[in-house]
Fold these 2 entries.
Entry 1:
Amino acid sequence: MTGSNSAHIPLWTPEQLQASQDALLSQRDPGDDVWIYAYGSLIWRPDFPFLERRAATLVGHHRALCLWSCINRGTPEQPGLVFGLDLGGSCHGMAYRIDASQIDSIFPRLWQREMSTGCYQPSWLRCSSDTGDIRALSFVMNRSHPGYITGLSQEEQIAIILGASGSCGPCSDYVLETAKALRQANILDEQLDRLARQLEPALRTRQILAA
């Protein structure tokens, strides 16, 4: 298992958030609609209007519980785990097309949600879909970030997920909602599916014991 001390992850300042957003948007043609690639909670809770949604595959990165969450799905004392796009493999997810006129209203909220600690490297990456390739904004894991974690066994992941809860609710809800959304979209993620099948009975047992 490798990772840094999750209890000491500073929040980005408004200036840092704005600079990161501006740098990413400077790499697009003004007036063009924007695609956003979703692989975790953005699949089942995008929280923004979109013109189109389609299944899309990203090659070169895979969905992984590789980021400590000390606010949304955990606390500094008992952090949870959330998904990132880590190096290697491929990821089946969803892509949303955003109207160019909506970017100025959508992106500040999106950056606050995804980039509050600078944990990702926002990148324009080529994704494939049944109706052609698209260039989509993808939040790729920053492996030098102090919240990056890898090498956890499934048993360790389950223990962490069961014990963590943050401002957005239990970590278990986050993981199970993502697994459910993928199944509903006919997207197969065997690793996440195995984890969810182990997590659900463990969660029921904990709830019974707590009653």
Note: The chain is about 35% helix and 30% strand.
Entry 2:
Amino acid sequence: MSDAGEIVELLAFRLGEERFCVDVTAVRELRSWGRPTPLPHAPAYLSGVINLRGTILPVLDLATRLGLPPLAGGDRNVIIVAEAAGQSAGLIVDAVSDIHRVERGALEAPPAMASDGQTVCISALSLIGDQMVRVLDLAALLSTTVVDAA
């Protein structure tokens, strides 16, 4: 089966000066900033939890989770509510920028590198305009988070 012509929609966002994307089909909603309730003894990347219409949702500082400097958390931040592999979480990002339509064939696998927290969560790389963006593998990111937090 050929991927030629198949279009994937990617939600682009910033973490500091870095650009990342996620498959838009995994995004449930975008929320304005609301400070999560911290949990004692939680991993550094787990900012806390929020009540999302009666469901307790873990909220991750995505920058910290990916080994980048932590986000300050404030009115300018956005929480991306995403679901993958049966797990849901809020992802704190600096800003959401665009939805990009990319041919699946234009998505390239990342180079085989050491299995650190960032590279195992990258499913693809793509050139959008003149900038390379990383497409996050939310299933890997969220399943690892659940294992790490247990």
Note: The first helix runs from residue 62 to 65.
